[in-house]
Amino acid sequence: MKSIHHASIENINQPAPKQNAAALASDEAENIAQHFSHYLKPQIAKSDPLKQEVYKLRYQVYCEELHFEETNATHIEQDEFDSRSIHCFIRHINTNALAGTLRVIATRNTDELLPMEKFCPQAITDENLRPRNFPAHQICEVSRLAVPLSFRKRQVDQFSGGATGAINETIFSTQELRFFPYIAVSLYLSAIALCHKSRIHHVFVMMEPRLARSLNFVGIHFTQIGAPVEYHGKRAAYYVDIRQLRKKMSIGYRKLLAMIEQELFS
Q1: Domains of the chain (ranges plus CATH)?
Q2: Which of 91, 148, 165, 239 qualifies as a FRET site for 58, CA 20 to 30 Å off?
């Protein structure tokens, strides 16, 4: 059975006592948005060579670093859902290395299931928010978030079984390191941008509840639609309508989203 999971989110700013932590995070996001494109470039993998880069990065993270999937001779991590996915990634400009990737799995008809419907149908218990309640062309699942070890800091908020790593400060400048905790969040914002552009309104994801809390902290509010199930650790099904999500995001993260949209679609 193919796994449904993500790999490695950075430690998102946590609430500080007696401070408006959400406002501080929004201000930091606004500062990051102003200089993000100097160091990191969000892109869509439209060509086969770019998709191969994505699959190789996923192999590195899922097979070699986290051991969620078996190793193979091709050194790529690929499954049946990739052919109907939009793949996005973030490239580190100075080294040309991929700093992270994520995919948006679309459906074109009711015969095409989302991964969570195929592998974890018991995870969805909210009858009002089942994928099949919405038009097939308006739903998607976000999955396969992967950030490689070289772009991860030692983490407090993690998902995917406890991966930790140290960033090589001899390669990356102190200024660049400020941006790395935003790589995973920026990949989610890239997914939001892709869904908005494609008129996909209803987004589903399987993730750890603590990741959902971290994303909620930065203004990406998912609704839990079932109790956690055991699947490479405790994971739950979540849903968000991106039309509402965009309206509720803080100013700082809306600016970061606007910057990402410009990079992806310009």
Answers
A1: 21-265 (3.40.630.30)
A2: 239
CA distance from start to end of the chain: 38
- Phi-psi sector, 105: left (phi>0), alpha (psi -120 to 50), beta: beta
pLDDT mean for each 10 residues of the chain (266 residues): 50 42 74 87 97 98 92 96 97 95 96 95 96 97 94 48 41 76 92 96 95 86 95 89 90 92 94
With the C-alpha atoms ordered 119, 217, 34, 176, is the resulting torsion angle positive or negative?
negative
Cα distance between residue 139 and residue 162, in whole Å: 30
How far apart, in whole angstroms, are the C-alpha atoms of residue 214 and residue 13?
8
Q: Which residue has the tokens 């699942």?
A: 141
Other C-beta atoms closer than 10 Å to the C-beta of 134 total 17
pLDDT at residue number 155: 37
Q: How many residues does the chain have?
A: 266
The amino acid occupying position 126 is D
The DSSP-derived string for 155-220 is -SS--SS-------TTTS-HHHHTTGGGHHHHHHHHHHHHHHHHT--EEEEEE-HHHHHHHHHTT-
What's the whole-model pTM score? 0.84
